[in-house]
């Protein structure tokens, strides 16, 4: 089982802070346990659905998802499952298939690659709808409209910062922290600004995630070569 803020640390095992929001944090914790690490799940963010009314998809030719949370939030508000779906990466694509969407194509893991994929394959009929966060990490719709494609965003969930104070007792023993998004990175940078962690490495999903962490006093920052969790976990394995 993943360690929580109140559980004891086990001597001789690498401890890794999982900072992402649930339920993804618990899935990440399970994966790093399989690698021989002890996860400490204290999210920096929490995702909440925005609205519950049915969403009218009339005129929508395709859907785009940049997170599994977006899939979940949209899927609860429509019965439509036969539109083409463009997912940012493999995990989001799996979430879309699990939700019942039948035409799912996965990108390479970031918003820019997703825009390239959509531009190549396109939404042949109607507008593409990005089921997004209230504060999306990238500008998918802007990228697509600059390419001459019809696209619009609908905020279906919001991400809010949580109080990570429960991790304080773990900080002296943490060997690494996994950071999945720029928003989480900014929250982590603010939290650690006056709490130096010289023995903890920060492992970032992408250069954009790493940027807010640059000024922190830590053992170092490593960036996944590809913006997806399997790549990030490979970096963790090497760090261990």
Can you characterise this structure?
With 240 residues, this protein is α/β, with parallel strands linked by helices. The protein has two domains: 106 residues, Rossmann fold (3-Layer(aba) Sandwich), CATH 3.40.50; 112 residues, Rossmann fold (3-Layer(aba) Sandwich). Helix content is 30%, strand content 26%. The chain is built from eight helices and eleven strands. The strands form two sheets. It has a six-stranded mixed sheet with strand order 3-8-7-4-5-6. Helix 4 runs parallel beside helix 5. The longest helix has 11 residues. It is elongated and about 55 Å long.
What is the percentage of strand-forming residues? 25-35%
CATH fold label of the largest domain: Rossmann fold
Taking pLDDT < 50 over at least 5 consecutive residues as the criterion, the unreliable ranges are 3-13
Task: State the strand order across the main sheet.
Answer: 3-8-7-4-5-6
Radius of gyration of CA atoms, rounded to a whole number = 19 Å
What global shape is seen?
elongated
Our count of domains comes out at 2
Number of E-type strands:
11
CATH architecture of the largest domain: 3-Layer(aba) Sandwich
- What's the CATH C level of the largest domain? Alpha Beta
Mean pLDDT: 90
Number of helices: 8
Structural class: alpha/beta
Distance between the termini: 20 Å
């Amino acid at each position: 089982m993943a360690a929580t803020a109140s559980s004891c640390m086990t001597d001789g095992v690498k401890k890794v802070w999982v900072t992402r929001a649930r339920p993804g944090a618990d899935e990440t914790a399970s994966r790093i346990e399989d690698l021989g690490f002890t996860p400490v799940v204290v999210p920096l963010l929490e995702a909440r659905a925005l609205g519950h009314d049915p969403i009218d998809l009339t005129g929508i030719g395709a859907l785009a998802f940049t997170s599994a949370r977006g899939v979940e939030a949209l899927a609860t508000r429509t019965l439509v499952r036969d539109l083409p779906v463009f997912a940012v990466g493999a995990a989001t694509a799996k979430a879309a298939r699990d939700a019942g969407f039948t035409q799912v194509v996965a990108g390479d893991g970031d918003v820019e690659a997703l825009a390239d994929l959509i531009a190549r394959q396109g939404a042949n009929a109607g507008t593409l709808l990005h089921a997004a966060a209230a504060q999306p990490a990238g500008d998918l719709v802007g990228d697509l409209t600059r390419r001459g494609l019809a696209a619009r965003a609908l905020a279906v969930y919001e991400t809010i910062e949580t109080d990570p104070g429960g991790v304080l007792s773990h900080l002296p023993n943490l060997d690494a922290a996994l950071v999945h998004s720029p928003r989480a990175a900014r929250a982590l940078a603010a939290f650690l600004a006056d709490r130096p962690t010289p023995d903890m490495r920060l492992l970032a999903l992408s250069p954009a995630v790493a940027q807010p962490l640059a000024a922190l006093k830590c053992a170092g920052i490593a960036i996944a070569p590809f913006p997806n969790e399997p790549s990030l976990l490979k970096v963790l394995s090497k760090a261990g």
